[in-house]
UniProtKB/TrEMBL annotation:
This is Unnamed protein product. It comes from the Eukaryota.
Length: 237
């Protein structure tokens, strides 16, 4: 981390903070600001991991989120106008754009092996994602972009892919909604809002357990504890 508010006659700027091996994983593929007000950044990792990190005024780094996607190598990400986390990258011979918040694939395009050259540009028109993906394949240059019209993302949002083993319900400030935390055999913990009409709106999927969840319990209004096989026990804030 460097402080750029220095006199103009200073030739070399020394780092004000340097962390080595602060986060685990493979190569960092991108660092993008996601909130200027709170100085929050999204880091994506080549080994399918990603981090949301906040810079404090000390300065210091605070890891707000440490997670992994289901598949592939992550090369970047951004947030949608609805605050969904969108990640993109490659798996095998195809490129993908993935909605991490709602857990579904937006785009998949076969684009060849690992020696490709590529570029992605994107923007939103209202809530609709517009993208342009260009890449080299053999001796060709190919361009992919979405059309003028878009279709609904999903007909009905899903939850877990395998048996739900346990759940916990937490009261919120809104008396019509409750926070629903579920643990499943698919090794994920999911955070949803349980509305008065019985619907569950998914907000987040956390992948830290290495085996199927056994139980999820509320400690208090701020903490959840979860357990799984392989002697795993996690405390979540």
């Amino acid at each position: 981390m460097y402080n750029l508010s220095v006199p103009e006659n200073i030739v070399a700027i020394e780092p004000s903070l340097c962390h080595k091996k602060y986060i685990k994983g493979d190569t960092i593929t991108s660092i993008k600001p996601v909130s200027n007000k709170d100085q929050t950044y999204l880091l994506t990792m080549k080994d399918s991991g990603y981090y949301v990190i906040q810079i404090s005024s000390l300065p210091d780094l605070i890891v707000l989120e440490d997670n992994k996607i289901q598949k592939g190598f992550v090369y970047g990400g951004f947030y949608s106008p609805d605050a969904d986390l969108i990640l993109y990258g490659f798996k095998s011979d195809y490129f993908f754009i993935w909605n991490e918040t709602k857990q579904f694939e937006i785009v998949r395009k076969i684009c060849g092996g690992p020696h490709r050259q590529w570029s992605l540009s994107h923007h939103y028109e209202g809530s609709n994602l517009r993208y342009r993906f260009i890449f080299t394949r053999s001796s060709d240059i190919e361009l992919v972009q979405n059309g003028k019209f878009s279709h609904p993302d999903v007909l009905a949002a899903g939850l877990h892919g395998r048996e739900i083993r346990d759940m916990a319900v937490v009261d919120t400030k809104d008396p019509t909604n409750k926070l629903l935390i579920t643990g499943s055999e698919d090794t994920t913990i999911k955070v949803s809002t349980l509305t008065k009409d019985g619907n569950a709106k998914l907000h987040w999927s956390q992948r830290q357990h290495g085996s199927g969840l056994q139980s999820v319990h509320c400690v208090n209004e701020n903490y959840i504890i979860s357990s799984s096989a392989r002697e795993e026990l996690f405390l979540w804030k």
